[in-house]
Design brief:
Order of helices and strands of chain B: HHHHHHHHHHEEH
Strand content of chain B: under 5%
Number of domains of chain A: 2
Radius of gyration of chain A: 23 Å
Structural class of chain A: alpha/beta
Radius of gyration of chain B: 19 Å
Strand order of the largest sheet of chain B: 1-2
Number of strands of chain A: 14
Number of helices of chain A: 13
Helix content of chain B: over 70%
Oligomer: heterodimer
Order of helices and strands of chain A: EEEHEEHEHHHEHEHEEHEHEEHEHHH
Number of helices of chain B: 11
Shape of chain A: elongated
Chain lengths: 326, 262
């Protein structure tokens, strides 16, 4: 095999005037967990749809498991497993029947079919619930069933589009345990989109996408070095005076926000003790943290990644508009 | 081989869903039987006999069988729209089976369910004083299946283009009732005004209903129960061929329509 399992070259997808994916290129190595991070409407789902043959690129090329996503659709489909952002189960059938259907359309050999179904159901802890009609499953159970289904035909690449969207933290953690376990046991490549920072942190490499363009691509650690400095938040008795003092004393520009002041310094652990000792304005509280992917995104795009979630209606509208075209 | 397996899987799921929901069979019989016994019996005395001792209920009986098959298969397309709304269609569309086999499996599924429903109506034949020989049943079953497949593929073609269940049901109702009324279920198409006769002959269901009626009532194609198309008396095989061509065309269009979906 090659040294990559997904290769994307100059991919473009336009919906009329709207450029959803704007000339992106990247490749993913076998066994890698690759995260696509970006706000809603950035082009994450559109890219996944092209990679899984649901949508055709306007231009550019994409290969999955050595097959072209336009010319060798059937081979690509056989190579991949999918967990969509929106549920895609037959709610009127039982969990078991959903998996049997999947096994049939993905040509899982009859000799191993039942055994594999049992294996994935047990892994997702749904074996006891297998005869229950999916309509009566909880949100977390449905997600787990979809994961089980995505694994059933032993795909080379598993696409997870916002796999834990709308789930409670406990279920999210459990699902992540399964995903990591899967990679360890089967060596499956995992391609994931998310706008949760902590989720993106679990990926080996992260591509940050905004307005259809790749803005950065690297490991989480190295991306955080783009920000470089540690972030200190302080609350003081007189913020205005404190800003001035920081500027004069350290030649650093502090930002004032609802939580007081925020500024960045190189190696905060060393900076902080001297700062507290010598600072003239009365300090009420201090917080030191390393940069998060949120800060990386802010640095690269000038916007916070969460900004768009506040505008959920617009994002939903945009997503719906895209679904209409499918 | 792969295509066949795809067709089978899609078909199997539809049958499984039907079986899980078999209570709806009762609903499916209620309506036709209401027509047959209430409507039919009420009007029977006012309707002239059709010669050779056939009364109105007996005349309507094969029509009701055809109507049951037609409505059931035509409406079955709704499952495609449901699947789209519930997201399951995506699971099907990214599966390594051809879109053509999806459309084919859906058509066969619709036709099978409709055939089961039509067959149950067939069991009521003795109640209206019609005796069916085994030979007649053996001819009727494939005829019903053909009508169901033709109308089912038409419904599925429409379903690939309509995005919401509400819109689909509105369109279907607008099409189903004219199709049923203009197919000779409730009255003979012999003495209707020209405009109606023209519409009835454009309606593919007419040929299915007429054929079923000729078999059930053991009437020849040149009887009042036959169809004269442009001066030509349609034989049983003519009708079968016409339905088969229509059904094949609709299935091919549905396959193409589904294949081009993103």
């Amino acid at each position: 095999m090659n040294d990559y399992i997904i290769k994307v070259e100059n991919l473009v997808k336009k919906f009329g005037q709207l450029v959803a994916v704007d000339n992106i290129s990247f490749s993913v190595a076998p066994g890698e967990i690759f995260g696509f991070l970006g706000p809603n409407g950035a082009g994450k789902t559109t890219t996944i749809n092209i990679l899984c043959t649901l949508s055709k690129p306007t231009s550019g090329r994409a290969m999955v498991n050595g097959y072209d996503v336009v010319r060798q659709q059937s081979q690509v489909r056989q190579s991949i497993g999918l967990v969509f952002q929106d549920p895609s189960l037959d709610e009127r059938l039982s969990g078991l029947q959903n998996l049997r259907f999947h096994a049939l359309v993905y040509h899982v050999p009859a000799s191993v079919r039942e055994q594999r179904i049992e294996q994935v159901l047990k892994m997702m802890e749904l074996w006891d619930k297998r005869h229950i009609v999916v309509r009566n499953y909880s949100g977390g159970m449905k997600r787990r069933l979809e994961l089980a289904r995505g694994l059933l035909h032993h795909p080379k690449v598993l696409f997870l589009d916002e796999p834990t969207l709308g789930l409670d933290p406990q279920t999210r953690n459990r699902i992540w345990e399964y995903i990591l376990e899967l990679r360890r046991r089967e060596g499956t490549t995992i391609f994931l989109t998310t706008h949760y920072m902590d989720e993106a942190d679990k990926a080996d490499r992260i591509a940050i996408i905004d307005h259809g363009k790749l803005v950065a691509m690297d490991t989480s650690e190295r991306l955080k070095k783009i920000v470089g400095k540690d972030i200190i938040s302080v609350r003081t008795s007189d913020d205005k005076r404190a800003v001035e003092e920081i500027r004069l004393r350290y030649q650093i520009k502090a930002r004032r926000d609802s939580n007081g002041l925020t500024f960045e310094v190189v190696s905060g652990e060393k900076f902080l003790p001297t700062f507290i000792k010598e600072f003239g304005t009365k300090i009420l509280s201090v917080n030191l943290r390393s940069p998060s992917l949120d800060d990386v995104f802010l640095k690269l795009t000038g916007r916070e990644i969460r900004e768009e979630t506040g505008d959920a209606f617009k994002a939903m509208f945009r997503r719906h508009g895209r679904r209409m075209r499918r | 081989m792969n295509n066949l397996r795809g067709v089978y899987t899609i078909w199997y799921r539809d049958i499984l869903r039907f079986w899980r929901d078999r209570i709806r069979l009762i609903g499916a019989f209620f309506f036709p039987l209401l027509f047959l016994f209430v409507f039919g019996s009420g009007l029977s005395s006012r309707m002239a006999l059709f010669g050779s001792g056939i009364n109105f209920v007996q005349f309507m009986f094969p029509g009701i069988i055809g109507m049951t098959v037609l409505m059931s298969s035509f409406m079955a397309g709704v499952s495609v729209v449901w699947d789209r709304e519930f997201g399951f269609l995506k699971e099907v569309l990214v599966a390594p089976i051809s879109r053509a086999s999806v459309a084919g499996g859906k058509t066969l599924g619709a036709a099978t369910v409709a055939l089961i429903q039509g067959t149950v109506i067939l069991l009521f034949a003795p109640l209206v004083g019609i005796s069916l020989s085994p030979q007649m049943v053996l001819v009727l079953l494939p005829l019903m299946f053909l009508l169901a497949a033709a109308m089912g593929s038409f419904g599925i073609l429409l379903a690939t283009r309509i995005r919401t269940v509400e819109a689909f049901q509105a369109v279907m109702q607008m099409l189903t009732f004219p199709m049923v009324f203009l197919s000779g279920v409730f009255f003979s198409l012999q003495d209707v005004p020209t405009w109606m006769s023209v519409l009835a002959k454009i309606n593919p269901a007419t040929y299915g209903i007429a054929t079923i009626r000729q078999v059930v009532l053991e009437a020849p194609p040149d009887s009042p129960f036959g169809i004269n198309l442009l001066g030509h008396t349609m034989s049983l095989w003519n009708n079968v061929a016409l339905l088969a061509v229509f059904g094949t065309a609709m299935t091919l269009l549905a396959m193409r329509s589904l294949g081009s979906q993103e």
